[in-house]
Specification:
heterodimer, A: about 230 residues, mainly alpha, MetI-like fold, about 85% helix, about 0% strand, B: about 350 residues, alpha/beta, Rossmann fold, Alpha-Beta Plaits, 2 domains, six-stranded mixed sheet, 12 helices, 14 strands, about 30% strand
Chain lengths: ~230, ~350
């Protein structure tokens, strides 16, 4: 059995320690920047939505600035954004490379993305529910907590799922400019040293990761939709 | 209980200004059921939303229960809104909460103990007859059940006023009846003042004491329901009366190319409308005997409003011209609006 594997994927088995290390780095990058993006992106989306014209916290200038911030950061291809963020990363994290160096670009790449996803999720909450809450004397903050965020749980979960999946994608891209992780591993060995079994192994691992995230997301959506 | 003083509401959309409500003043008595009726776009929903200031009027004062709402801060206004319940056409229940959760919603975070909330929700479930549904989600309920939950939720804080914005318009006729019946019962049991916004004449006839007819942002006619609908002054009011009566069918029958109604030389097609409380008299047999006429009733529509008959009939009267005219004059003296539509 072992021989069979060895003949199929000799380089993967030879560098299995490094592969494992790369996987751990990817998981670290995804979970740390994912958590930060969640904490920043969801409130960002809530304000993006509620400051809109006719929203419960209507505020034109604030909405304009947030919306433009979103558009600008979402239109920059991630590879360029990562290069652009190197300076800021050195300033805040003290480094532009490795897992630590990848956090800042990843957060800047995903917060506007999750923000828009959250905005869309809140837009799906029927306006009538908000009106009903207002007629019962609810304040804007109560409406955000007790109506919007609660009613939009399935929609926000969908948004978070897509965001984490693209985050996994982004970490692979960040790997090409020295962030470490699976992307870096595949570029260095699979591409650099022409060891195709490594590239294939990385792809399979990423497919498994993405499928697991999607399955978890779909399960939560199912459980929270009534 | 509710007083509007010169309420106007304008919406501005770029350069375009729409005046949805124009200088409306009215007063709704405590414990009554008032109906605001109008076709869509008449401004009735906007006017109703001015009661709890979901729409803030551009001009005028809104006074509910002695408090001038238009003079309050946002925070004070939110407190006052708890005294004004509201139900909607689309029910607007919280989909992520169970029936229990929906009714408990306005009570939570208000300093009420869990056990107290439990007790109050149980009372409300009893009141609307949904004891066995407390763990269901809105998506599992029928339209009528959803509206009952919405009513319970609106009553949770023991409001003095209940606003019903087209609350039966999405329901079938039978369910509509049961919801209207419930509203009437709540009005009698709790003494709550109810304002019903509707485009259906049936709803007003069924439960309202007073009616306000709206057209083009103004209240064009108002008063006691029987009086307004038995002798409508405005065309719009007449249209509402016609909408529930089948008497207008005669116009279609006359226009029918198959000519289902054939009038002979002595036949007079007449429409009679009862204006006052007079239908208890045997008018038809009286004119038939007194004037020696044959009366053939084609269509009849008599409704009971506040226990009084209202409506009319279309009939073919056969006889010599002078006697028919005599009968028509007699009917007019008895407060029946009699008109000859056509004759042979």
């Amino acid at each position: 059995m072992a021989e069979v594997f060895y003949s199929w994927i000799p380089n993967v088995i030879e560098r299995s320690d490094q592969l494992l290390e790369a996987l751990v780095q990817t998981l670290q990058m995804v979970s740390i920047s994912g958590l930060i993006s969640l904490l920043l992106g969801i409130p960002f989306g809530v304000f993006l939505f509620t400051t809109k014209n006719g929203g419960i916290l209507q505020n034109r200038p604030v909405h304009f600035v947030m919306s433009k911030f979103c558009d600008i950061f979402r239109s920059i291809p991630f590879i360029l954004l990562a290069i652009l963020m190197l300076g800021l990363s050195r300033l805040i994290m003290g480094t532009g490379i490795g897992v630590k160096g990848a956090i800042i670009p990843l957060v800047f790449g995903t917060v506007p993305y999750l923000g828009r996803q959250t905005e869309n999720a809140l837009a799906e909450v029927p306006a009538g529910m908000i009106e009903a809450a207002q007629s019962m004397g609810a304040s804007p903050w109560e409406i955000i907590w007790r109506v919007y965020l609660r009613e939009a749980i399935p929609g926000i979960t969908r948004g978070v799922t897509i965001t984490i999946i693209s985050l996994i994608n982004f970490t692979a891209v960040a790997g090409t400019i020295g962030a470490g992780g699976l992307g870096n591993f595949a570029i260095m060995y699979g591409h650099g040293k022409t060891l195709p079994d490594i590239t294939v192994a990385v792809i399979v691992i990423i497919i498994v990761l993405v499928s697991a995230v999607q399955a978890a997301g779909s399960w939560i959506v199912k459980k929270t939709t009534h | 209980m509710i007083r509007f003083e010169h309420i106007s509401k304008r919406f501005t959309d770029g350069a375009r200004t729409v005046e949805a409500v124009k200088d409306v003043s009215l007063e709704i008595e405590k414990g009554s059921i008032a109906g605001i009726i109008g076709f869509s776009g008449a401004g009735k929903s906007t006017l109703a939303r001015c009661i709890n200031l979901l729409e803030r009027p551009t001009e005028g004062k809104v006074i509910v229960g002695g408090t001038e709402l238009t003079a309050l801060s946002e925070k004070q206004l939110r407190e006052q809104r708890k005294k004004i319940g509201m139900i909607f056409q689309q029910f607007n229940l919280f989909a992520s909460r169970t029936v229990y959760g929906n009714i408990a919603y306005p009570l939570e975070h208000g300093g009420m103990a869990k056990a107290e909330i439990r007790q109050r929700v149980n009372e409300l479930l009893d009141l609307v007859g949904l004891k066995d549904k407390e763990n269901a989600y809105p998506a599992q309920l029928s339209g009528g059940q959803k509206q009952r939950v919405a009513i319970a939720r609106a009553l949770a804080n023991r409001p003095e006023v209940l606003l019903s914005d087209e609350s039966t318009s999405a329901l079938d006729p039978q369910t509509t009846k049961s919801i209207l019946h419930l509203l009437k019962e709540l009005n009698q049991k709790l003494g709550i003042t109810i304002v019903v916004i509707t485009h259906e004449m049936q709803v007003v006839k069924e439960i309202c004491d007073k009616v306000y007819v709206m057209d083009g942002g103004r209240v064009v006619e108002s008063g006691d329901v029987f009086q307004v609908f038995s002798s409508p002054r405005e065309t719009i009011t007449r249209n509402f009366v016609m909408s529930t009566s089948n008497l207008s069918q005669i116009d279609e029958l006359l226009g029918d190319p198959a000519k289902p109604i054939h009038l002979g030389p002595d036949d007079y097609l007449v429409r009679l409308r009862y204006l006052e409380r007079s239908t208890s008299e045997a008018l038809i047999s009286h004119i038939s005997r007194q004037y020696e006429l044959d009366v053939n009733i084609l269509l009849a529509s008599i409704e009971l409003i506040e226990g009084n008959p209202l409506g009319g009939l279309v009939a073919v009267i056969t006889g010599p011209h002078e006697r028919v005219r005599g009968a028509m004059e007699y009917l007019s003296r008895r407060n029946v609006l009699a008109e000859v539509i056509s004759h042979g």
